[in-house]
Each structure stands twice: as structure tokens, then as C-alpha cells.
Amino acid sequence: MTRAPLDVLIHRVDPEVPIPSYGHPGDAGLDLVTTEAADLAPGERTVLPTGISIALPDGYAAFVHPRSGLAARCGVSMVNTPGTVDAGYRGEIKVIVVNLDPRESVRFERFDRIAQLVVQQVEKVRFHEVAELPGSARATGGFGSTGGHAAVTGRPAGTSGSTQGYASVASDREGQ
Ligand SMILES: O=c1ccn([C@H]2C[C@H](O)[C@@H](COP(=O)(O)OP(=O)(O)OP(=O)(O)O)O2)c(=O)[nH]1
């Protein structure tokens, strides 16, 4: 069953910016564009304005996510992915982009799509302190306790002469 869309007030800080829209009917993210052109050298980051501010209803938040096409093609991501836009925030939404490509610079023109905005309902919690938490299958195992992604300080398997360290996913592949 299709739910009715949530009504959200929007203000265009830049009157020429297009109102964010979904690329396809089933998409989760609304495209965000930059209103400023920018050049990013390898490893460089910058804060880009999107030209919009919104008023989300209480109980909602919007999350600024990177675009996978930009990531795959140009190595562009966001420093704080996902960025959190609080329901009470009325300022212009900004995107902290970073060029993770080790060699190529990237250039954004005004109104290039740089990120996507996912609006979600969020729970408010009330903490109840206890002396001991109830048991669970995972218990306290975290950070790689199921195996895989062991850091290898020496050479990658099957090579010789390299002085660089590699992270290995071999034990994950083998299901260890
Ligand atoms: O990618 C982002 C992340 C945040 N914001 C805006 C909306 C958010 O409501 C506000 C504050 O963000 P956050 O709480 O993540 O930042 P903080 O560093 O914890 O700042 P504060 O002390 O203001 O909470 O900045 C953006 O425009 N883009």
C-alpha cells in the first residue's frame, strides 16, 4: 500500500534552485544540488550550500547521504555521512563533500547534484538504568568478533617485496 507523502515546508534560500525531487517513484532520497561551483583537489573537502532550508515535523529527521554514482565515478563522498538534519533546524542545508580520489581533482558546477536527502521518522528514547542488561546471542562481542577484516601488517598473500600494509578480508571470504 502506498503511503501518502509527508508534507514538509521548504524555503529557497537561493530562489533559482530547483525544489528537491525524487529521481524515480520508488527512490528513498531527494536529490540535493550545490548552488556554488567548486574545485576539489585529491583529498580536499569543502562545505557546499544547497540553497534550501526546511521545517520537518517533530519526530522526523533528514539524513544527507552521498550519491553512489559520484562515489564510484569520481571518489566523492561526504565527511560526516550521513549528515543529520534535525527537525528544529531552519538553516540552509549544507553538504560536507570530500574528494577521496588519490589522483584526480573534481569540479562541481552550480546546480550539480551532490548528495541525497532521506527523510525518516526517528524515535525518542527514555533511558531506564539497570545493574545488568538482559542476555542476547551476540552478548558483548563487537568489532569483528565474527571474523574477517584482520589487519595484516606485512605483504599481501602471494606477493613478495612489498613494504606496504594491506587489510585482509581473506578470513571473511573463507567464512571464518
Ligand atoms: O550534513 C549536514 C549535517 C548537519 N547539517 C545541519 C542540520 C543540523 O540540524 C545542524 C547540526 O548538525 P549536527 O547536530 O550534526 O552538528 P553538531 O556538530 O553536533 O552541531 P550542534 O552543536 O549545532 O548540534 O547542521 C547540515 O546542514 N548538513
Automatic annotation (TrEMBL):
It catalyses: dUTP + H2O = dUMP + diphosphate + H(+). Substrate binds at R67, S68, G69, N80, T84, V85, D86. Its cofactor is Mg(2+). Pfam families: dUTPase. Residues 138-176 are annotated as: Disordered. Residues 17-147 form the dUTPase-like domain. InterPro entries: dUTPase (IPR008181), dUTPase-like (IPR029054), dUTPase-like_sf (IPR036157), dUTPase_trimeric (IPR033704). Its EC number is 3.6.1.23. One of its GO terms (molecular function) is dUTP diphosphatase activity. Pathway: Pyrimidine metabolism; dUMP biosynthesis; dUMP from dCTP (dUTP route): step 2/2. Keywords: Hydrolase, Magnesium, Metal-binding, Nucleotide metabolism. It comes from the Bacteria. This enzyme is involved in nucleotide metabolism: it produces dUMP, the immediate precursor of thymidine nucleotides and it decreases the intracellular concentration of dUTP so that uracil cannot be incorporated into DNA. Belongs to the dUTPase family. HAMAP family: dUTPase_bact. This is Deoxyuridine 5'-triphosphate nucleotidohydrolase. It comes from Streptantibioticus parmotrematis. The lineage of its organism: Bacteria, Bacillati, Actinomycetota, Actinomycetes, Kitasatosporales.
